[in-house]
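Exercise (ungraded).
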Amino acid sequence: MAKTAIDNAKVPSSPVKILILSGAGISAESGVRTFRDSDGLWEEYDVMEVCSVEGFERNPKLVADFYDARRSDLESKQPNLAHETVTRLKRKYPARIDVLTQNVDDLFERAGCPDVIHLHGTLTDLRCEECQSVFEIGYKSQSSVVCPACHSTKIRHNVVMFGEEAPMYQKLQHSLDECDVFVVIGTSGKVLNIGWFAQWFEHSLLNNLDPDENLDPYFKVVYHEKATEAAHKIEAYIEELLTRFD
Ligand code: APR
Ligand code: ZN
């Protein structure tokens, strides 16, 4: 009989490794808008106008203004308890916890989290379309910025758009292969198929605000509450597994 994903679920190796994957929901309580919740960004903007290769080619100024607005808005935001909890775990177990996020904000970094993998790019950087160098601009507007490496004016946001490669997905695949426990905080799974990924893990936890019958059944532990309220339970869950399988 064909094996199902659950039959193939990975039995934790020793030492246990944890993948913590987050989405816009982990930054929601910091005041950073999510995408698909009510009052989310995609209620105000046509996602294909500002987040797709076609939209960018059609109207690069609209896209530059969109990212300028999100970048300057980010400056006043602060990391919340969920960022701080994940940061504490990552600093305590640097080799055993992978922190990957779909978010382009810098709130994990501002919480002091090292080695965060941004799967969809970073809002506080720009990329040169001539020499491909990526450089930090913080929360400033990109207008009149030139590439520090080659002085080209052909610079763009460093955020992955629909219709282009997401090079960091290789790191996601590596962590999915390497890790024994899958912890997901604040994502609708509309871009990354987290339900599918969860099937391959014997130990998995999902924390979202709202129930989702297309996601929840694939996870062993599910918390439907704000990330800052679930944070201490997520920390206890991870600590227990790290010590149990030591
Ligand atoms: N605490 C926990 N979860 C929350 C909170 C909160 N305070 N607020 C919202 N959520 C959850 C919602 O229940 C939802 O599942 O966060 C998720 C937000 O979903 P989306 O807005 O779709 O954001 P995300 O899943 O990160 O989007 C994925 O889509 O548009 C692209 O590139 C963009 O990286 C983004 C990707
Ligand atoms: Zn350049």
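Further reading is listed at the end of the chapter. For now, observe: The longest helix spans residues 227-244. The CA atoms of residues 68 and 142 lie 7 Å apart.
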